[in-house]
Amino acid sequence: MDTATATDLKTFRAETRAWLEANYPESLRKPVKNQEKEVYWGGRNPYFHTPDTKLWFDRMYEKGWAVPHWPTEYGGGGLSKQEQKVLREEMARLGCRPPIFSFGISMLGPALLKFGNEHQKMKYLNEITAGKVWWCQGYSEPGAGSDLAGLQTSAEDMGDHYLVNGQKVWTSYADSADMIFCLVRTDPEAPKHSGISFLLIDMEAEGVSTRPIKLISGKSPFCETFFDNVKVPKENLVGKLNQGWTIAKFLLTHERSMIGGVGDARKEVPLSQIAIKEVGLDDGKLADPVLRLKVAQWMMDGMSFKLAVERILDEAKKGQQMGAKSSYFKYYATELNKDKHELMMELGGYDALKWGEEYEGGKLARDMCRTKANSIEGGTSEVQLNIISKRILGLPGK
Amino acid sequence: MDTATATDLKTFRAETRAWLEANYPESLRKPVKNQEKEVYWGGRNPYFHTPDTKLWFDRMYEKGWAVPHWPTEYGGGGLSKQEQKVLREEMARLGCRPPIFSFGISMLGPALLKFGNEHQKMKYLNEITAGKVWWCQGYSEPGAGSDLAGLQTSAEDMGDHYLVNGQKVWTSYADSADMIFCLVRTDPEAPKHSGISFLLIDMEAEGVSTRPIKLISGKSPFCETFFDNVKVPKENLVGKLNQGWTIAKFLLTHERSMIGGVGDARKEVPLSQIAIKEVGLDDGKLADPVLRLKVAQWMMDGMSFKLAVERILDEAKKGQQMGAKSSYFKYYATELNKDKHELMMELGGYDALKWGEEYEGGKLARDMCRTKANSIEGGTSEVQLNIISKRILGLPGK
Amino acid sequence: MALVLNEEQQMLKTSAKEFLAENAPVEALRKLRDSKDPKGYDPALWSQMTELGFAGIAIPEEYGGMGFGYTGLGQVLEETGRTLTASPLISSVLLSATLINLAGNEHQKAALLPAIADGNLLVSVANEESNAHKPLAAETRFRKSSKGYSITGTKKFVLEGGTANKFIVSAKKNSKSGLTLFVVDAGAKGVKIDQTPMMDSRNIVTVTFKSVKAAATDILGGEGKGAAPLEKALDIARIGLSAEMLGSMMEAYDRTIAYLKERQQFGVPIGVFQGLQHRAADMYCEIENCKSLVIKSLQAIDSDSKGLAVYASMTKAKISQELKRVTNEAIQMYGGIGMTDDEEIGFFMKRARVAQRTFGDSNYHLDRFATLNGF
Amino acid sequence: MALVLNEEQQMLKTSAKEFLAENAPVEALRKLRDSKDPKGYDPALWSQMTELGFAGIAIPEEYGGMGFGYTGLGQVLEETGRTLTASPLISSVLLSATLINLAGNEHQKAALLPAIADGNLLVSVANEESNAHKPLAAETRFRKSSKGYSITGTKKFVLEGGTANKFIVSAKKNSKSGLTLFVVDAGAKGVKIDQTPMMDSRNIVTVTFKSVKAAATDILGGEGKGAAPLEKALDIARIGLSAEMLGSMMEAYDRTIAYLKERQQFGVPIGVFQGLQHRAADMYCEIENCKSLVIKSLQAIDSDSKGLAVYASMTKAKISQELKRVTNEAIQMYGGIGMTDDEEIGFFMKRARVAQRTFGDSNYHLDRFATLNGF
Question: Annotated catalytic residue: which of A127, A141, A224, A255?
Fold first, then answer.
């Protein structure tokens, strides 16, 4: 239980509401069309879609609300959980856009807060909250997919610096990012999980280059990132040497529940409505009897999963451990989402087969293709099933 | 190609037809109600359902047609493949019952023909064709299910005999059989596949006892069979010492295509007819829209499998190897059969839940329960999938 | 409402679990079956259960019950699913008492509910007539005269019908009129009961009513007005039965996982095989989904949700699908041992098949779910 | 008839396989796509294919074809499925020539079929109008006057419509009359073509007919008599397209199995994992089933079987289901690499989605299969 009393919270809510009303720019009070363009991503070469986008970020940053849940010494808002909830609710009430979208906040921050030294926290977290640096993530490598710990990118200790060589893949927005947080091999002799470290690398350093990856759905934010004799200061090591796997596992569990997309389904138009619109009714029943049952089954599966997430979160509030259940969320949510997009294609008929413009989103066929990665990225469905088998069911390994 | 000319075959057909017409007893020219009771099973204490059952067996045996495809020196008919086919067709034409049903013919015979010595062939095959001995099979053990080679029943070399100790399970009709063909461990030190031998044991020998097994479907022909210091003559070893695994594999492949029940579906009433009768039509469509699609899907799956068996047999005639395809037949046929019985339960409504009398067959619920073993006996579905993976697809093992 | 049990419900669940594990393990069902007792349940056990108040959990306090609601009753049912305990809970308490409470007048409720709550009165709904679930399609007819009513027709699949003291019979005046519900004594003249063994060894019968007399005071909810309360009571019963099925599903699953860890093949426990692991893990996910459906739907009854019918159909459909799958996978994973009558796992499959079909199977409810959602 | 190819068919298959592997590998489709050529196929390749006689395989010898029948054509289609070769084979040869042969009079057949067989004339059937497959639901209307016919309406999903020289347009006189098929020049006044890119990079268009003139001699099969030959031609096309899809399925599968042997993870090829093995083995079984459906159905065309419609629906339904599954599993098993455009496996999924839907998807044909079987 947080310590804030109900009265305090009430006051906080009133103040927050008034402040947002006064400070959220009028011009942003409409739906976002292109998330990637219209939201501020931060960075050394900042891009603001409109002057009001900048104004909104600046006001929120000043207030400490760019990252309301981080401590104030790192530029955060220092809000309690209950206050964070109030802020979220009040922002949602007014339809406020996030002031900034940043992997620094969602992915690097938690690692630094837990494993970084004070210098690193002061420097990097403050940069992130101020929107000054765009971070990207360098975990995967071409040879190592699910076998993340099989990574080969090496960081050799050269006395005063590390010399990094190797290649990363699936680095989102590496071509826009200023810095990358990486897993690198620092001890090639050790068992594979033990020789890995967590390193921060400047993308402008000599020897770093990137190449965008085109997906089956079209252009993508993903890149390959190459390190060719890149010198990295030793102070850029996070945590202890060869402790990288612990940090990575911590972040992966964190990421998994995000990719699971838990809760996203709530706002959506029911599939039955789409079905009725696209296929039509015949004597009160969907005109395609097979699709009718597929849609009904999907809705039942989807609703039961939504309720399961709700229940498990309720249980967590009462103190029960979530544990490896994030693997269940990740697995089931991504499989549901793939099925949904296949169904949307079936409902969409001939028109759904049109290939539309690249990079716009919202086109059925491209979206369907893109969803195929849901069950691959952030740990494949097979890996999630393995985790459930071992960590939840306690089935024996080899 | 067999050597018989078309003219020879035509003559053979005419003679066969005439002989069957003259010799197949009138009283047997009606459908079998209870296969187990009405067909002759052979044995030291023979049971014939009616005098004509005996007459029919005696005539066929005399003609060499109790086992038409075995060599004449072993009491068989020595017929060519083409002649066998003619005989089958002519028997089917008249609705002739098999003169005898015997695991000796279907299971032990092929092993003896391939691996037995001349003495064994002369003695045992002639006994089988004459219907004098009822054989049962002793492979499985309680501890070793899919891991057949993990068997523990031991046969110790005592100089002039083997001393057998252990327990077999799933020995069909062991309580009626005269002899059992067994896999036993003759070298406990050898790697597990290498220390197994194929042994023939008299069920009347001292120390052999049986206990019937009740299944979830009710009574069953299965037994547990116990060997407690049973003395077995050394001449009862088939093949070489410790060669038992080779013989077992040979027989298992043989058995697999039989359990697959290939071709059985042809005579059956289409599931759609049963569905219409049980559930009824509503505006030309099955009144239950979900069952309608399940039945349609099952029929499509079933017909496509039936055609696949037909095609693969046609290809085999043209010289293509069947190889491990028997695992595909076994896997798919048994899964189809289980699904079919589940569907029959769904079609059968409340009445299908009645538990009827034991051991009669034909009761929906009991039959459904019994089909659950289809994908376990004769190598589980999982084992078949492993075989397909390794032997057909060439996927690597551990 | 948070999808968790409150303390009262949690206590009820715990006490039911302990009581049933002690007094009614699966072995008890085997004994009952092997004794071929046509009652299909153990009266001594039933009286212990009623002493613990199980029969009155969802019956309002004013009518002698505990007034704990259906979420509470669901916990007891779930535990009876784990032990496969046969009892009149489903027929008399879950369905009949609910129907009486929904449709009965003050006098009827006062007369019947306390007796059900203390376990002495067993009531069973005699409604189904065809071979499939068609809850409102009664062909049973009644005639009305100055002397009262006379009911004629045949009812199938009457749960615990062989031991019921009273039936709630649905009948129509003619093919166009609404459904009327009569409370009739099982011993009344013209009532004939035919029992055949069922695969779950319970007592489910066919009841023939031949010119059975009833008075106006025996009508529940008014002449021609039985359909609405019956449908609602059925929805509640679908959810309650789903709770029982959930218990069976979890128990069959838990036993299977334990078996995977214990059974050795090829020198290792079979649970190491990824082919089995992935199937087990996928079932784990669906069971989590099913748990949520059940608690949400139980709460929907207690909060008198407008979405009750949708919840009922969704829950009964999905639980039926998954229970079928889990019990089938259980036998496959147990292998030959699972096929033997000596092993208890088969009892779960047999009970599952009957429960799947009771109050509508997954086919029925998938179709109904679509219809209720307007497509 | 034995479910195996005769020597002639086997030779045709082998020569198609060799030719396509050499001249039209999947890489050729990538180039075609990246060039954004609206034709959606390579005319130079097409002329090589027609030189080999591919366009005339199923056209009777009297009309300039090879008269090898549909089992032969199916072998070529299967091979084009393996290489994802885009060509007018499906639209002009499989569907249009078949329809002309079934419905045309002597004069029409003599005029059109030889030109299709030598590859110079491309004909496309313009029939679909709504967003789903409704083969007989034309809203396109024609008017008849002393000067001839005038056709107005809009046709969707016209295969290879952007490059067709002629269309076979279906139209009705009024909502109650039968379907009439007209052969119309693509360049005729009032014909307008709209092309949007499709996910398989092929050329599928919408064609608007605005008061397009036609003469009585342009009618195929008589006024109001188009439905029967159209349905039969569609059934044949469903089977022929299924042969193409089978080729794609086998190729995607073979590549996936090869990848499972090659790709290393955790120090072993991923093909050792039983979770993947069992899925791969189960797909193997279904592919064997699909192969049999295709050859049986092709033979059913050539033997003029009465069961043609049932075979067509069963084959198209099941092939569509399994192709979807195999292409999805392929990408999942390839993992991240399968998601990249650099890897060819994604092309199979994209072509699959279009082919699945062409001439009716699995939903349509599962329903039709039940209907054709009387339930």
Answer: A255
